[in-house]
Amino acid sequence: MPDQADLDAAATLATLRAHWTRTLEAARPRDAKELPDPTPYADNLLTRYQEPQRRYHTLTHLTAVLDHIDVLAEAGYADDPALVRLAAWFHDAVYAPDRSENEERSARLAERALPEAGVSPADTSEVARLVRLTVTHALAPGDRNGEVLCDADLAILAAPQGTYAAYAAAVREEYAFVPEDAFREGRAAVLRQLLALPELFRTPYGSQHWEGPARANIAAELNRLEAGSGPV
To answer: Which listed CATH number (2.60.290, 1.20.144, 3.40.50, 1.10.3210) goes with 4-227?
Structure first.
């Protein structure tokens, strides 16, 4: 008999497949006919998020981003919630810690898969644009879809201390091939860049609920790194 962990994993996959189907159906034109089955597309993406090199960019991360999008979309911040959700599905679909073009390759995957799955060219372009935004999270004023995706992607920074510690440790595991001194230097540089930003979150909800905790978590991790005590 399968153990509880196997049952939980199967339930997670079933929930995510159902989420993908709802999202894809919401993004497809209402008058479209003879559209392909959503399930193979979901399974391809779910397989990608379970690749062995991943420690943080996993199904847990995908689920968390989708949950945060739900919070922000329900508050009315996204212009096109279905497209933002599709972008979340694709934003880390291609991920290798030793490569710098992951987001670009993920966006190109969306550009290939979504038209085949029945999404219009214009909406496919918007999804790919949103995926590419996650490289820098640099947003133009008024980019409501981008604000929701980027805030949801960065919301881990505002997690409770234990969850944040697990996130930081998972990031270190993904970069296990990087020597300790080099990792500390690089990670500290990233954290300083984040703290230097005038705002980490752009939606009113993110600004109110996530900005303060995120800055406290980042500052605490940076202090640990500078003290030589590790990321957690």
So the answer is: 1.10.3210
Model pTM score: 0.94
Q: Which residues of the chain have pLDDT under 50?
A: none
Q: What angle do CA 154, 160, 162 make, to 5 degrees?
A: 110
Domain ranges for the chain, please list them.
4-227
**What's the token pair of residue 63?**
């689920």
What is the pLDDT, as a whole number, of residue 231? Answer: 55
Contacts of 40 (CB under 8 A, 6+ apart): none
Q: Are 158 and 210 in contact (CB under 8 A)?
A: yes
Per DSSP, 101 falls in state: -
Angle (CA) 124 127 128, round 5°: 85
pLDDT for res 3: 79
